[in-house]
Amino acid sequence: MPPIVCSAQASYKKLSGLLELTTAHLQWTKSGEKVPSVKVPHSDAASLSRSKVGAAQVRLKVGLVSDETGHNFTFTSPQAVALAEREKFEAELTNIIARNRSGAPVTAQKPIGPTVAAVTAVPGTPTGAKPPVGTPVRATPQLSRASTSRAPSIASDSRGTPVSDPTYDFRLRKKVLLNTPELAQLHRELVIGGHISENEFWEGREHLLLAQSAAESQKKGKPGQLVDPRPQSVDGEVKIVITPQLVHDIFEEFPVVAKAYTDNVPEKLSEAEFWSRYFQSKLFNAHRASIRSSAAQHVVKDDPIFDKYLEKDDDELEPQRLREERVDTFIDLGATSVDHDDTGNEKDVTMQAGKQRAVLPLIRKFNEHSTRLLDTALGGPSAKRRRIDNGEDRYAQLDLEDLHDNEASAGILLDMQDRQRYFDGRADATNDGNAVGPKLDFREALQQAKSSMVGWSATLSQLKVDKKTADAALVSMTHNVATRLDVKMRKHDIPENLFRQMTTCQTAANEFLRQFWLAIYPPPSESQALSVATPAQKVAKAAKMIQYLGKTHDKVEALLRSASQESVDPSRVKIAMTPVLDAVDKALEFWRLKSTKGFR
């Protein structure tokens, strides 16, 4: 058996087991068994992704060369241990995938976090001014071999953006600054001004870079609406405007129209005549995304050419064209919550969709359209089939990770003075029988609650509100709303130059405070940091920020003098800057106490 590089307790398809990485394979063995249930050679590993930072479950997904969906593993150890185990697997697998992509051994390097998969579509039949002759080839989107996860992790390199490319890194940060003028102004004042470094500025703002990277990697999908051309007024006349894109969509949605176009244009009909007669034919009426009424049947005309392509209404109990695979349950308009596997020659009455026969063609049309969109998004029917038939619960498809709260955090441990004496005091009080707080008899409280609710409806009907009291409450609320609106609508009378100086002072102080506390306290997860600094580097950074914060009071005093020169009441400026000064004073006092006790 090949040597084991690393191992961890992990679940696969909700079954507990052991995940192991050897020098030849990645394998998972179910608990109680000796033979691995999953065994992936190193050469088959193609992509890697993981759950978002702060997610409740610590997951790792390995995409394969022959299967983009790959395998999902959930580390089941306590969160701190699970994160460390995942990091180990991630580092080893990243090097393996890098060797697979390069085709040759690579030198040791820092592992790069998983990237977001780029969805690229193979272009369909090009559309020009004239519609193509013949049925256009259907565009078949293909998924790249990279991971399809929408939760990219932060790279462990010093830049912290999802790609270790300096050019991409610079462009990403530039776009974030262009999209956020306030952040760009702060960047000019602090980074270009030489107060802090570029990496220090972006530390703690990795989410902005990841959001920009995710936005750029997203590709616009195919519109979800059915092709249903509607007439519109053009130069006072009601017409249907034909565009190359509309022609392409009609041919793709209704292949029979493409066949009619190939058979009749340009030998029997010109292009203009073809579309003019099509939109007045029964064939077009049959393709409308609405129930065909008897009134519509009288409006359309008989057409000897298009009537040949008419098909019988698909309104029987069984569809005319049986699909090779069933429609996905969650997009099937004919599915109900009581559906089950067929047990006879005919479906149960509760599983028969459409009480009106005219509705059945529409249900099947929408199902075909929805399935086509789903196939496009998943890269084809085979990919969708893998997702459904891999043994997972169907409702797991609806459990989207992006809908979970990823901001949950264990927080920062409270550093208490005389902690032992506090807990000893509580223990002594408990032993003496003096419980903290009053004792509560839950049965007695429940009885009191029940007795107080007896006859509540009669008591409520007898309730009378004093008119003067109600009017006074209404006047008070109206006055409150009017005051708030007046404050919101009123423009401050502080000169623009002075107000800009106040804003600059406040934003700079807030940034220095942020940098100071980042150096003092660790981030919720080390993977959120652009680079892991040593304790000495953190102390040096904190001391540097304290020097800047120590000048905040002088800056505020300068603002007060400027306010006096601008004929503005200095007390107003003082009140506006008080919250910042309080925060600065707290940081300065904290640093003084920590310096007195010494750093550990």
- Based on Cα principal axes, name the global outline: extended
Computed structural class? alpha+beta
Give the assembly state of these chains: single chain
Helix content: 40-55%
The total beta strand count reads 11
Distance between the termini: 46 Å
Number of helices: 20
Unreliable residue stretches? 104-163, 292-296, 382-391
Topology of this protein?
Layout: E1 4-12, E2 15-22, E3 25-30, E4 38-41, E5 45-50, E6 58-64, E7 71-75, H1 79-102, E8 119-121, E9 141-143, H2 166-179, H3 181-192, H4 198-202, H5 206-217, E10 232-234, E11 237-239, H6 244-253, H7 255-264, H8 271-278, H9 282-286, H10 294-299, H11 359-378, H12 381-388, H13 419-431, H14 442-452, H15 456-461, H16 467-489, H17 496-520, H18 535-549, H19 552-565, H20 570-597
Antiparallel strand pairs: 1-2, 1-7, 2-3, 3-4, 5-6, 6-7, 8-9, 10-11
